[in-house]
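Researcher: I've got a protein sequence and the SMILES for magnesium ion. Could you write out the 3D structure of the bound complex as C-alpha cells? I'd like something to compare against our soaking experiments later this week.
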Amino acid sequence: MTDALKVSGLWVDYRTKSAWASAVRGVDLTVREGEVVGVVGESGSGKSSVALAIMKLLPANAKARGRVEVLGKDMVGLPGKDAHRYRGSGMTMIFQEPMTSLNPVMRVSEQLSEAVVSRAEHYKLEMFRYDSVAVPGGPDPRLSIPQGRPAPPPKEAIEALHQVRIGDPERAAAKYPHELSGGERQRVMIAMSFLLRPRVLVADEPTTALDVTTQAQVLSLLLGLSRDEGTAIIFVSHDILVVGQVAQRVAVMYAGEIVELGPTEAVLKNPLHPYTRGLIASIPSGFKGGKRIEQIPGAPPDIMRLPSGCKFNPRCKFAMDRCRAEETALKELEDDHFVACHLY
Ligand SMILES: Nc1ncnc2c1ncn2[C@@H]1O[C@H](COP(=O)(O)OP(=O)(O)OP(=O)(O)O)[C@@H](O)[C@H]1O
Ligand SMILES: [Mg+2]
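Model: Sure. Here is the predicted complex with magnesium ion in place.
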C-alpha cells in the first residue's frame, strides 16, 4: 500500500514570553492508505502539535521544521494558500473541541452541504491533476465550477447525521452549532468528515467528549471510513485502550518524541519502553486481571526544562548513568516494532 502521509524529522517550536521551546522533537511517522495509526501519550507530550503541523494549522507563535508529505506533497514548505486547497477532501481534521472548526453563523445543514460541494470540487481538481493532459485552447471544462451553489443534498447530509447516531437528524440539521450539546457538535464534525471522504484524516481525541456507547459507534464508523474509502487516519488519544480498538499501529509519544512504535497488538501485549509499560499498568481494569493499578511516578517534564539524556529518565525505575547522559533513538527490536530506550 502507498504512503498517504509521511512525516519526517518534524520539529515544532513555540515562542513563549521568555524563549523558544520544542514541543515536538524529531518525529518520523508514516500512514498508509486505509491504515489507522494511533498516537498516544500523556497531556503535553506533543500529540496535538504533531496533528496541527500535519494540517498546517499551528498557531502564530509556532514554527515547524521537517517534512510532512500528504499524498506526496510537502506541507511544511507549502505556502498557506496552497495548504488550504489540500484541506477538505484531501485531508481533514477532527478537533478535540469541535466549536473551533464549526462555523457559528451557519446552520448545520448548510455546513454539511458545503462539505459535499467541496468534495465534488476537490475530486474534479484531483481528476484534472492525475490525468493531466495540457488542454489546447482554454481551460479544461472539467475545472469549471457551476454558477451559483448546487442545490443542497439534504438526503446525504441527513444520512450522515443518522450514521453518527444523532437523535432526530432533521431537527439537528436545522440548528446552529451553539444550539447543540458538545457531544452533538462532535458528531456533526464527524458526519462532516464522512461527507468529505478525505484521503487523510487527522482525528485529535475525537471521542473524548462522547459517552462510552456513542464512542464505540463512532470508532467503528471511523474504521469503516478507512476500510471502505481507503482513508489514512491518524488517531490521537491519551487512552491507549481506545487506540487499541482502532489502530493497526501505535506510536507512543513522550516529551515530543516517539519512544515506541509498532503493531498495536505487539505494543499492547509486549510493551518494550518503561513508559509504555507504565501507561498500560495504569489502565483501571481489563488487561491485568485485577492487579493493583500502578501510576507512573512523577509528572511529564516542562518543555522549557527538559532533562538531559533520555527525557523519561527522572521517572524511570531502570534509569542508569547512560540514560542521564545520552539521548535515545528508535531502534527496531522486532519486526516493525521500534523502541527508544538504552535498556535494549
Ligand atoms: N500555542 C502554544 N504556545 C506555547 N506552548 C504551547 C502551545 N501549544 C502547546 N504548547 C506546549 O507544547 C507542549 C505540547 O502540547 P500539545 O498540545 O501538543 O500536547 P498534547 O499531547 O496534545 O496534550 P493534551 O493531551 O493535553 O491535548 C506542551 O508543553 C504545551 O504547553
Ligand atoms: Mg492535545
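Model: Confidence is low (pLDDT under 50) at residues 125-153. The chain has two domains: 3-88+203-339, 104-132+149-197.
Researcher: Great, I'll pass this along to the crystallography team.
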